[in-house]
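Honest question from a wet-lab person: if I give you the sequences of every part of a complex, can you actually get the arrangement of the whole thing, not just the pieces? Trying it with mine:
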Amino acid sequence: MDKLIITGGRQLDGEVRMSGAKNSALPVLAATLLASEPTKVCNLPHLQDITTMIELLGQMGIELIIDDKLNVEVDAKTIKEFNAPYELVKTMRASILVLGPMLAHFGEAHVSLPGGCAIGSRPVDIHLKGLEAMGAEIQVEGGYIHAFARNGLHGARYVMDTVTVTGTENLMMAATLARGKTILENAAREPEVVDLANCLNRMGADVQGAGTDTIIINGVDKLHGCEYTVIPDRIETGTYLVAGAITRGRVKVKNTAPDLLDAVLLKLQDAGAHISTGADWIELDMKGNRPRAVNIRTAPYPAFPTDMQAQFTALNCVAEGTGTIIETIFENRFMHASELIRMGAHIALEGNTAIVTGVEHLTGAPVMATDLRASAGLVLAGLVANGDTRVDRIYHIDRGYECIEEKLQMLGAQIHRVPS
Ligand code: EPU
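Yes, you can. This is the full assembly:
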């Protein structure tokens, strides 16, 4: 298994370009299943999760054309099997996103039930209940979700009892081809939900209200093809900004969307960062100063994202003062804390709260990545630790960060990959 070796102590200084958003690209690729014509998806990040989604579509027998920039054209009408097998779903939970579109377009879907994962139990009950409200017949048997809608789905009013991102996306996609009007209440407002809605509308769907907590979808008979470019990755952007902040450096992130990061930028300013923004860039400058500890409470968008929690935990580890971090989305998303403690961090964990008191220096150590964002937190800590930090199991990081070592090297970090 590859490892990352980071020698800490370099103040980052430079510019870096962001990739397309993983969590937009995955639902947009799933949405191609709804179209009756070929659909082309552009600005896909080169990531393991994207490869898995492409493989999943390929295993259904769907014809795909992939160009040298990893733009993917999907012709859903060439589908031969309505299966998402365990072997792929177990490697990527977001595979569940094919359920709604496959069912709505083809009247049938068999998708392995995703299990729990390192950060929490992560059930999909809301996805299933919402589809049932639209008339689907669903049985869960032998670890698989078997869903049928032989006569198509119908519109429904459905109140989601928890805000769920992929749940909202799955139901929104299914509703585009349902008969009549669907109203999704307590919908997720994440930018990736809005991006998916924009893609669906480009395909001829009638989706209104994405970005608010009520999404109204008027079903149409069929969707046509289109070419769609996914938005930049706001979590990758936030991660590189924290890399600048933690090293007391200056980082300009290009090819991004500043208006999607309000909560993160506010916390970086609280930490003492000078932030300036343009239409598609953000610059962070610490002017050589040590960051100040910040208090964080994760919550659905537009509040502070859980996907940035581990990175800010790392920031607080070397900041001046004490910061409290409350994780409200996932029940087990502090796996990075014990690894950071091994690097000399002062973290007290109490249930869903981490109280972090900054230390002057962390010390490099061998650490283990446990999930995607936890790994990012460990890499950030490695950038400021004395000596070498070796991050193991970095397949987690490759799921969500394109060329992380090259991008950090361009900013002046000493980081390299050691193949197994
Ligand atoms: N939940 C339920 N029932 C459901 C669905 C969700 O109880 O049917 C609960 C979950 O257990 C969790 C909460 O609702 O406690 C929110 O989970 P959500 O469904 O919103 O998470 P997700 O859709 O599975 C997406 C991102 C995650 C991100 C979360 C929260 C994708 C592909 N994944 O997951 O991204 O953390 O939303 O913002 O969009 C990552 O990129 O590292 C990542 C984990």
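Two things worth pointing out. The mean pLDDT is 96. The pocket of EPU is lined by residues 23, 26, 94, 120, 122-127, 162, 164-167, 192, 306-307, 329-330, 372-373, 400 (CB under 6 Å).
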